Amino acid sequence: MMERHIVTESLAVQLLKEYRTGASFFFSSPERTILAEGVFAAVPEAEGLNQMENLTQRADAVLRQAKQAGQKRPIVVGAVPFDETKPVQLTVPDEVWHAGPLTFDQDEPKQPECATFGYDIQPVPAPEEYMNGVKQGLAGIAAGDFSKIVLSRSLHLTSPIKIDIGDLLNSLARHNSRGYTFAVDVSERAGGESETVRRTLIGASPELLVSRSGFRVSANPLAGSRPRSHDPHEDQRRAAELLASAKDRHEHAVVVEAVASALRPFCRTLDVPSEPSLITTETMWHLSTEIKGELTDLSISSLELAAALHPTPAVCGTPTDLARAAIKKIEPFERGFFTGMVGWCDSEGDGEWVVTIRCAEAEERALRLYAGAGIVAGSKPEDELAETSAKFRTMLRAMGMNSE
Fold first, then answer.
1. Which of left, alpha, beta for 308 (phi over 0: left; psi -120 to 50: alpha)?
2. What phi, psi does 204 have (nearest 5°)?
3. Quick one: which of 46, 44, 45, 27 has its CA closest to 35?
4. How far is 309 from 312, CA to CA, in rounded Å?
5. In the chain, N or C terminus with fewer CB closer than 10 Å?
């Protein structure tokens, strides 16, 4: 039986230390820290090809089973992939600990051991191929196939020693204290336990897809970005340029309207600011809009809201179906859980779901990092390449690789 432990904020860091690769789910936000262990039951696959179909109902059924087994307020945790035909990785854990937000002292985390030995790095696709893909996306926009497409690339890193996922998670949390840090077991168990491919989805997303607390709903779409600079004057110049950019503001407005349109059917009221603001991470500036609403009905869960939003134009494009089809043709790899969603939803419907960006899928001695950029009319391939390079720095810095 799961016991729901409530601990003080001062012990949030202890939950981070208690994370165990392959055995735990970890999620931290500006509101709380969650550590979950064990698997009471997994949310089953859908019978048809579309794994998003009836997702909320399948999760609710598992939560009811957990309640019948004695759990007072069970919780679903895990990740949903970008591709709707791929299985979700959602479970009701055996045991969950909750704390307030993470707070750290000023001590710098030690450099991950792998950084000392170095990684072999392979970009997929190569930079030139990525820019060619952007040109294909621009051709599709010019032809009227879609108005925006998000194209991504990956870095495949191989380590000479076993990667310590716990150390990497700790470093990510310390370097991204204002965002959402997560680690989810996404191992593939095809053919039996002996053939399991152990894999962890790990990252520090700046983007809240949606949260629900009682009747209150929040979403924080991001679109439009600039890399940070170590020079304070240049950093502020880039921020001001982003806020004034007609191209980026249009790209941002498209995403905000899509998120608002998806939320309106569920909400009695919805507050959508008319102007974006700026938020910052260690590596990026982003245009940001905080959308807040009030639900019409408490039966609408955070998972139902998240499923209605996924994927937003911030990670896919507009129109969604046409952009997603083009992505599958242009990108030379499967996105997996990148640009999907990760988070939690309890049996009362409360929860938090974030967009799975600034992330990697980690195996014993390998990491696959992902980064994408939104392509609209007027985009330049070399600028989009530079943007993805800047977005890689969230993971690379946490790994002790402080390249510009």
1. alpha
2. -140, 90
3. 27
4. 6
5. C
Specify the pLDDT at position 362: 96
Is 374 contained in some domain?
yes
C-beta of residue 108 within 8 angstroms of C-beta of residue 18: no
Q: CATH number, domain at 314?
A: 3.60.120.10
Element at 226 (helix H, strand E): strand 222-227
Residue 404, in any domain of the structure? no
- DSSP three-state, residue 302: helix
| Global confidence as pTM | 0.93
Q: Has 207 been annotated as catalytic?
A: yes
Q: Total structural domains in the chain?
A: 1
Mean pLDDT of residues grouped by 10 in the chain (404 residues)?
A: 50 94 96 97 94 96 97 97 96 96 73 65 97 98 96 96 95 91 88 73 98 98 94 97 95 95 98 96 95 97 98 94 97 97 98 98 96 94 95 93 62
Residue 351, phi-psi category: left (phi > 0), alpha (psi -120 to 50), beta (remainder): left
Could you tell me the residue range of the domain that residue 213 belongs to?
Answer: 4-113+120-398
pLDDT of amino acid 196: 78
Residue 376, strand partner residues: 148
Annotated active-site residue in 84, 148, 352, 361: 148
Does any domain span residue 134? yes
Contact by Cβ (8 Å): 309, 262: yes
One of 9, 72, 207, 275 is an active-site residue; which one? 207
Please confirm, yes or no, whether 275 is among the known catalytic residues.
Answer: no
Please give the Cα distance from 373 to 321 (Å, whole number): 18
CA 6/CA 15 separation, integer angstroms: 11
d(CA 80, CA 209): 12
d(CA 140, CA 11): 51
